Amino acid sequence: MSTTVPSTAVTSGPIEGSTKEYRLVRHAYSDQSHVSDELRIPFRRVHLTNGEHLDLYDTSGPYTESEPVLDLDAGLARTRDHWRRPDPVDGAATQLAWARAGIVTPEMAFIAEREGVDPDLVRSEVAIGRAVIPANHRHPESEPMIIGKAFAVKINANIGNSAVRSSISDEVEKMVWATRWGADTIMDLSTGKDIHLTREWILRNSPVPVGTVPIYQALEKVNGDPTALTWEIYRDTVIEQAEQGVDYMTVHAGVLLRYVPLAAHRVTGIVSRGGSIMAAWCLAHHQESFLYTHFHELCEIFARYDITFSLGDGLRPGSIADANDEAQFAELRTLGELTKIAKSHGVQVMIEGPGHIPMHKIVENVALEEQLCEEAPFYTLGPLATDIAPAYDHITSAIGAAMIAQAGTAMLCYVTPKEHLGLPDRDDVKTGVITYKIAAHAADLAKGHPRAQERDDALSKARFEFRWTDQFNLALDPDTAREFHDETLPAEPAKTAHFCSMCGPKFCSMRISADVRAYAEEHGLVTQEDIDRKLAAEMDSKSQEFIDHGKKVYLPVV
Amino acid sequence: MSTTVPSTAVTSGPIEGSTKEYRLVRHAYSDQSHVSDELRIPFRRVHLTNGEHLDLYDTSGPYTESEPVLDLDAGLARTRDHWRRPDPVDGAATQLAWARAGIVTPEMAFIAEREGVDPDLVRSEVAIGRAVIPANHRHPESEPMIIGKAFAVKINANIGNSAVRSSISDEVEKMVWATRWGADTIMDLSTGKDIHLTREWILRNSPVPVGTVPIYQALEKVNGDPTALTWEIYRDTVIEQAEQGVDYMTVHAGVLLRYVPLAAHRVTGIVSRGGSIMAAWCLAHHQESFLYTHFHELCEIFARYDITFSLGDGLRPGSIADANDEAQFAELRTLGELTKIAKSHGVQVMIEGPGHIPMHKIVENVALEEQLCEEAPFYTLGPLATDIAPAYDHITSAIGAAMIAQAGTAMLCYVTPKEHLGLPDRDDVKTGVITYKIAAHAADLAKGHPRAQERDDALSKARFEFRWTDQFNLALDPDTAREFHDETLPAEPAKTAHFCSMCGPKFCSMRISADVRAYAEEHGLVTQEDIDRKLAAEMDSKSQEFIDHGKKVYLPVV
């Protein structure tokens, strides 16, 4: 790997108020219990001022350790190489094949501890294809994670340079930066020169699975003329990327010749790059897509490395007007066929989804995907709930993303404020990631994920008790929360003030509320029944007492 | 009015790419058809580069005219004073009383033209209390608007200074600024000194209805001691504000003594300022809230000015943990009782709603509100779908807001990025407004509002045709969209380039897609049937032709 990125080029050190911790787990295959692997499961510990702490799922890799030893040139430790890998099952060396064979792999055990679930839930969800573990054998630096609706909703951050701007160094930092804030996977969508080298730098240094769209690089190899593409060029590109360690690949194998005209009279035609490339190829050759006709061969390659298919929605709608149309759903039916083929090869599959969808048409997308694709994990881009807010499409899409995740989508591809307008910079990447963490977490709450509400409760409790520092540190973005607070009340004592700048000391409802609680506790109003009973009996005589107490309510503490 | 705000202190002039237009409508009461009022209905015309235009609902008042004549000291023209006002019906000079009597008022005619609906729909929705027209007779400067689920979803922007910071001049500019970007109403939540004067400046210069929470000013009058409040002090404050022209008032009359202990053991107690003030009063006096016991008297005052009740949810949940609890719903039942009382006085009513609600508990809020409060318009603050993202609560709440509006909420109170952290500045106000316009519009689309999708389609068509300038000008925030684009491709010719910075010239799916369409049209593939038929018959022989055509695809235009 040519050294072009100094280790100082990436952000490192703990997130404010947190430390990086590892939980050690010994894992042994059930049939080989005399040998075991040591797994170090990472998490982020938020230290609270009241002595408590909260442990959070963490995607940031060693970069957030207190004193990380970084060598970007060497890459991260090849941890998974030291774990024992089961033998292939029917030619497939994949998590799917092993799960079907009843084997709980080290990756599954790692994930179970990370998600706080039973290892056999991980195995069984993978076995029936309702969850995937993208983990190419040649990306041993990655920390195992799972994508499936029985688990926490995940988010992906797209990075990658284009012909117009951006450098390798920028992209490596974007990867580190995106995972720092919670990206569960990264897609490298580079289309410019140095496409191979950029990917190598990202893969060797990425603690999360990396996805790509191989057709982009294949197109570079034919100087950008899609009609000059061939199966052989594409296949060789896939193998090149497989050898590098790409964990999942978007393949637009559902864009069939006969579907292309369905998109011709749309308001926004074909908006997927891969979809439009394949459409152009199909029309030019008047042949069926080589991705479709060679799909079995592709599956054999994927099975060797355990690459996960991300079956691309090349005909996804690019506008509200085109949502849920025949072109989109025709392709989805084909993705359903391909899902069955891939699984018959022991290859893991997820399905990509739209795009631009008005709210009332969102649930239909999930229902149809589950029906047609055997509940393979759905991986959607947003969707944007309206077209009218360029520069705010992280928000238009967070609305759709939260709703589609509530309905069952397993992973959300982020959208940044630059969507439709330009390439995201570092700030945009952070905004996109935080926004999508919100959508994913809102869905986890709505789905009743067992650990989700812990964080809301901890933060709300801190808010109610005026533990400002804890409120910041428990936030998705402690730095910005602190900064916004300090704009109004910058003095350090204000961090412990029993009021805030919105209402000032006299109007603070939280303060009054605390007094109400104190009053209730003072008077033994502990349960609802107590409250009802005692209120009737006692309150009359106590009102003067509350007045005395109440006179103190508005004295500022600072 | 003491002159402290120069006219140069507010933002004026058209929004980029648009002009302010007025449509003239003559309106006569059906029973007095020989006399009519001339109504000038404002809208914003977006001029497109292809010679077309799109007219949009506009809330910005004369400030966005090309050469506005502004005199903040004199205030806006008192337009509604020149319209004939029907006689009171049963003592009530209200839109509700007139609607019930079958009268289409000038305000209703104005709204019908503005919303593009039949005037009798406006009248009938007001008559049954499913919509309100907040329009105090003493705020004749306002342009009539309607809040109800049969109409476009509206948004409110809160402004107002506090003891800690902000000036009158800042607040007037925030009002102008918020309405420029689409705020349908403004609430002045000032709590510091100069509360009367600030409100006067805002009212005299506001083209949209203004709401307040009178208890805030009443509390100032008793030096911040809630236990010192009395009905008389509150009543006099309401009359003072009524005389100034406040269009709707939040009244926390549903916070009853017996509900207060229900909130004592919540994670975040009582988070509504008004709610906590009344709770403190009730506990201190061990008496029922004077807002509740004097509610009839309050209705009589409201009926004289046509002030609309915004029945406050003083016990709204302030955290995910407290959502949909007994305290919240007990108060809602009382608001239902009060709704009936207000309507019996001919007074218009809307109902305020939460707050912090996880997605799966949102719909229940709307269903219960409609059931208990006779479908009075619901007016919700967000709700935030999670607690964990201070500094991004415009986004956490936009998710909830879009969903609750889809379910039937008529007006959304915005949340800015500073929520929970500090007072919003001018930028925060804009971010909050734009974010809530997104949520409202997403709901309009989902509800099938007849005009909503026009704008999405126009913008998406512009996007597909690479009319960059039109894409910017049709956006909710043209300035930021343009700025983001220009960061990557600043040259003016790039505005007509047939590609953008995300993919560069070679990878542009929109370009390929345009070629697919050109190909389809060239070959007569106009309807779906044509496509199916001709594809089978002709495409084989045409592939070479497409290749020739395709070779041109990737030549950059600039």
TrEMBL record, chains A, B:
- The reply to whether 4Fe-4S figures as a keyword in the UniProt entry is yes
- Tell me its EC number(s), please: 4.1.99.17
Binding residue positions for [4Fe-4S] cluster: 500, 503, 508
The top EC class, named as a word, is: lyase
Source organism's superkingdom? Bacteria
Pathway connected to this protein: Cofactor biosynthesis; thiamine diphosphate biosynthesis
- Binding of Zn(2+), residues: 356, 420
- Binding-site list for substrate: 158, 187, 216, 252, 272-274, 313-316, 352, 379
Q: Which GO terms describe its cellular component?
A: cytosol
- Role of this protein: Catalyzes the synthesis of the hydroxymethylpyrimidine phosphate (HMP-P) moiety of thiamine from aminoimidazole ribotide (AIR) in a radical S-adenosyl-L-methionine (SAM)-dependent reaction.
Its family remark reads: Belongs to the ThiC family.
Name of the protein this chain belongs to = Phosphomethylpyrimidine synthase
Q: Which gene encodes it?
A: thiC
